[in-house]
Amino acid sequence: MRKAASTENGATQKTPSKQRLSGGKMTWLKAEYEFGSLFSYRIPDFSTQYALSSLLPGPSTIRLAIVATAIETTGKVSYGEEIFQAVKNAKIKISLPQKIASSNVLIKRLKKKKDEVVLETTFGIRGYVHYSGPLRIYMEIEEGKENEVGNLMKKIRRFGTSDSLVYCRTVEVREPTANCIGPEEKLDGTAGVNKRFLLIPTRDINPDPEVKFEHVNIYSEEKAGRGISVLVNRFYKIPLINERQGKNYVVYQTSESRQG
User: Fold this and answer.
1) 198 in a domain, yes or no?
2) How many domains are there within the chain?
């Protein structure tokens, strides 16, 4: 497959694509991101008082970052709905940097008192992650949408919370390399006994056709999604070597790292 460089405004050049069984031709986009500082994504089902961080943004975080960027750059919620349809069920793969550092720190927090309109001081543990290099995200998009989605991926400035700032270095049409990892729906039972793999639980948007844009639309005043599981569990099985660790930090090396 030929490599295609991105244009000045972030648009991608067309390249040969493959075709799904459903009949639509698909194209892989590759985007490369640098985090501006430490980032933190609370692992699903962990409490806010002991909020260890995932080592990577989950699939739902990536999809919704694209949707949020579509709305923020145009001011049109309707455009966000259009992009949501384009990325909701798109395949996602990730290539991690060579080294990942994770640390857990004691922080002071302000918490609303129960049944009162005042804040009280509490303490909790929060995990933070630092990358040694860029995060590479691959997304398979329907042909004809790659330029549009590629431009939005280029404009992403954060994944999730506003303190997880990123800068997009490049967007291009390129298929994932062999070392890329994708989210898994079920565990195969081997990672728990293999010390070279770390299981990372994350969330993704439910692929069920009943899950619509209004279920994730933060600009809507109506409560949608009752009785529907909008998010589902997904797992990343990451090949990691524990390089060194201390009382409250770990430095990992990705055992299958190479340029993606």
Assistant:
1) yes
2) 1
Q: Is 215 left (phi over 0), alpha (psi -120 to 50) or beta?
A: alpha
Does pLDDT of 180 surpass 70? yes
193 contact partners, CB below 8 Å, separation of at least 6: none
Tell me whether residue 4 is in a domain: no
Nearest to 122 by CA among 130, 136, 110, 106: 110
CB 138 within 8 A of CB 30: yes
Is residue 84, in this structure, part of any structural domain at all?
yes
CA distance linking residue 96 with residue 157, whole number of Å: 19
Provide the terminal-to-terminal Cα distance of the chain, rounded to the nearest Å.
14
Residue 79 identity: Y
Lowest average pLDDT, out of 6-20, 87-101, 157-171, 208-222, goes to 6-20
**In this structure, is residue 199 part of a structural domain?**
yes
Residues 6 or more apart whose CB falls under 8 angstroms from that of 30 comprise 136, 137, 138, 171, 172, 173, 174, 176, 260
> What predicted TM-score, i.e. pTM, was given to this entire model?
0.83
Domain ranges, residue 213: 18-254
Percent over 90 (pLDDT), the chain: 60
154, 171 contact by CB (below 8 A): yes
Q: Which CATH number covers residue 165?
A: 3.30.70
